[in-house]
Amino acid sequence: GAGADNDLCINQAIVFIEDAIQYRSINHRVDSKSLWLYRWYYSKTCQWILSLTITVILALAFIEEPSSLSVTSDVRYRLPAWNPPCGLTESLELLCFLVFVLDVSVKSYLIGWKEFWKNKWLMAYILTLIVSLADWIVSLSFFCKESVRIRRILRPFFLLQNSSMMKKTLKSINSTLPEMASVVLLLAVHLSLFTMFAMLLFARTKDNQQDKEWVVYFRNLPESLTSLLVLLTTANNPDVMIPAYSKNRAYSIFFILFTVLGNLFLMNLLTAIIYNQFRGYLLKSVQSSLFRRRLGIRAAFEVLSSLKETPASAQQCCVSVGALLQVLQKAEMDSRCKQAIMRSLKMCSCDQLSAAQFQKLFEELDKDAIKQHPPSPEYQSRFMQKMQFAFGHPYFGYLGNVVALANIISICVVLVMDADKQLSERDDFFLGAINCFFILYYLLEMLLKILAMGLKRYLSYPSNRFDGLLTVILLILEIATFAVYGFPHPGWRPEFMGLLSLWDMVRLVNMLIVFRFLRIIPNMKFMALVVTTLLDLVKNLRAFAGILLVVFYAFAITGIMLFKGAVVPLGNTRYIGNKPNAFVFSLWAPFSIKKVVVLYFKEKNVISWCSAHFQAEVIYCLLYALSVLLIYRWAKIYFVAWWLISSVIWVNLFVALLLENFIHKWDRRCQRESLSDIEYQRTVELMFRDVLEEPTEEELMEKLHQHPHLQLCR
């Protein structure tokens, strides 16, 4: 009947508007049962369960063998880690697989078979599940003793396919690869040419004492290539040139030319190309998101215009205001946008909305989120009004910054004076006294600001919440210190009592005071611009962090499988002059014979080099240490691939997006008035809003007529 048809149209419009809000595709089934299933699938509860399942299956790697449940990561000192019995993690894994099977089944049903065969991500999803389940069965048949688990490497795919923005970002990266490959090829040519020059310059001579450069770095082609590749990362700089430089200063010209051409020109050229190309592809991706939003809103208009209550005498399609209000009440959307659209509808004098008016109403979704702070309290007393004016004035905040700076300076002075003193000679009276004074001032400042601004307005500012929270924590720590150790006095140096010693308590208080000094950031416009840029990246570029997590996870699991059992120290090592006397490696040979190789630092110099450069570059240290093992070639390929993906490509992508976000904020800083009562919140889509093109009505209608499940009347 007409009532059932109207209900169906209303439900279709609700789903289409929710699709537009979330930038989802509208190419799904639109019958009553499918719409109910669709809304249930995208409900917060269902998506929370799916996110929890993805988190659980990724976290299994931390408790699976080899387990990471230990306090220290040093294999020489940590106790044997707890390894779960066979079947425990496998049972959790099976539950996760069942959730994923349900997930892919619902997705496949909702989009229909025609769309399913066009969706490569869904087919890859099913293939990943089939391979993972097969590997799970093999694992149980071997009683969890198999050395290779393919499904562990495939786990990040479940995270990747669940995020539309991550898939768009990955598509953008894939489109950028050809341009990146040209510069990477140029880097390879640069590296190869200088490798040949190095082998000719530092060739072996009759004098073994003068061949240190050849012995250590340029003995053969693979070692020469590796040495210069690591020099490109500056990890072995200047060690790689020291033997040659000691022999003849002119050899430094070779290394200077290599570093200047490689690091200053080619690597920065790669950053420029990635920035230019990736920004264009990301812009296209955001343009497609805008098209999805406009298409969803137009689809909602079309189904609402087919309601029976629409006047037949209307010359063009229109939607009644009452029908739209009914849709808005049931649709899941931000309360700010919903209220703004409803206000616009109440201000509208007409009862029917055209397509242009309907679309314009939902442009509220594209606007910046504006947060207005609550008003300050209104005092009747003249004295309270003067107090409110004085302590609500910006100069009072500047005074607090000056006091915080004085606190930092006093802490620095005390630390410098006590740097060379023994613990028994240290007198904590002065530091305790000044901390007590400044904390009392911070408490007074917080209370006066609350008096002037009101509690709600005070808490509406992030800087005030940060300041107030640290002030309360400092006050609690100070009270706890006085309760345990008494008030500061000359010679205030009691013994350890309670959970923390006095010096630990004082250090904790001082660290929080130093951290509190960050409150000055909002008062410095340029610094605030930089910080808000970083915060926006953290909040809005979750897709990049997700893909980075995928890369880290895949390489970590691959590394565990490749190098498991390759390097195992037998007990603790003895130290001579703070350097290990020997380092013991254990290697499982192909015939399952455990060989023990003892590498004395006098012969191979592995440990002495790693001790000096461990913090500079762990990868090079591992490459150098693994060079004596049979898996050296695999190790080299693994670490070079990791460096290319994580450092060369991904860091440059992050720099490109950082630049784009910063330039966007820099260009907009003069376009808006600096209103203290308004905060603007930006998203990735809004970063490019000014340069996006609106789709035409013809494009929207053409796409709607291609909908596999929606039949339009016109």
From TrEMBL:
Keyword Membrane: yes or no?
A: yes
An MF annotation (GO) of this entry: voltage-gated channel activity
Domain Ion transport spans what residues?
A: 52-278, 394-662
| Species whose genome carries this gene | Leucopsar rothschildi
Membrane spanning stretches? 45-63, 122-143, 180-202, 253-275, 395-417, 429-448, 469-488, 508-531, 543-563, 583-601, 613-634, 640-659
Identify this protein by name.
Answer: Two pore channel protein 2
Q: Which reaction equation describes what this protein catalyses?
A: Ca(2+)(in) = Ca(2+)(out); Na(+)(in) = Na(+)(out)
Where it mainly occurs, coarsely classed, is membrane
**Per its UniProt record, what Gene3D superfamilies does this chain match?**
1.10.287.70, Voltage-gated potassium channels. Chain C
Gene name, per UniProt, is Tpcn2_1
Q: Does the keyword NAD apply?
A: no
Where does it localize?
Answer: Late endosome membrane; Lysosome membrane
A GO CC annotation recorded here is: monoatomic ion channel complex
How does this chain sit within the bilayer?
Multi-pass membrane protein
Reading the lineage from the top rank, the first entry is: Eukaryota
Its family remark reads:
Belongs to the calcium channel alpha-1 subunit (TC 1.A.1.11) family. Two pore calcium channel subfamily.
